[in-house]
Amino acid sequence: MRIGVWFVVRDPSVLWLDSRKAVVPRLHFAMRPIWKGSISFGLVYIPVAVYPATREEKLSFRQLRSSDLSPIRYKKVAEADSKEVTPDEIVKGFEYEKGRYVVLKDEDFAKVKIESTHSIDITDFVDVEQVDPKFFYKPYFLEPQKGGEKAYGLLHKALSKTAKIGIAKVVISNREHLAAVKPDGLFLILELMHFAHEILSAEELKNGPDKEIGEKELKMAEALIDSMAGAWEPEKYRDEYRTAIRELIEQKAQNKEVIGNAPAPRPATNVVDLVKVLQESLNRNQTLSKRKPVSAPSTSALVKQRRRRAA
Length: 311
Description:
By secondary structure, the chain is α+β, with helices and mostly antiparallel strands. It has helices at 106-111, 149-162, 215-228, 240-253, 274-291, 299-310; strands at 9-10, 14-17, 23-25, 35-41, 44-52, 60-61, 92-97, 100-104, 119-127, 136-144, 164-172, 175-184, 187-193. α3 (215-228) packs parallel to α5 (274-291). The two termini are 48 Å apart.
């Protein structure tokens, strides 16, 4: 029988600290839709469900009182008299002038009816290469619902053939978003986008690249890039800092002594030694590439290749 206790680190992948004080990952539950509605373009309506396509796994630490490790909690108090306010006393207000507010209730938000509240309304189709990558920031899976499979498949194939994406508006969590509908493997994804006024300009940056780059430096830099080039394999990249913190937590939970020193910061590359540093980097990568064993493609990589071919 496993005895579990809550741990002070709130991490989506850690739930138990078992009787041996070993951190045990919890099971992942099935995805649930966050929104249901339809994709609309022209007179076509496709019923879909929206599912998260990414998850954020981070270690979230509780604040504790040092003397007895009692968790710290916060109270909501009014500025006027510092008295605690209960949830049923709280309303939403917008400060239109200093100290003056307009209060909005749930029924007020319900009155704001726009077309995109119940549909992913595609208004334009554009070439994906025309859109600056900075506009995209959060993807969601789109799953066809009963009766919409054929129209869904038609839109997926048409977007794949034309190399275009659908630009749409959608309301999620009481906020209207600009979004793109894209083919991704066998499914469509909805990727939330920034509006144009939310994109900042790089003109505010003071330091720019040095335009006086020598031909020898450029060729060596290109050779170094070529020596490090390879296929995109996302599975091989890991959050090493998070893993190290998890190991540290487990060691401390088992009352083990933590041994280790912080690595020294890397010195900045001296401009005078740039060619030398490039050459040394190139030599090192060539040596490492000779030692690296040739590995077969992973199962997930093969599945993705088949999906791309099928699409």
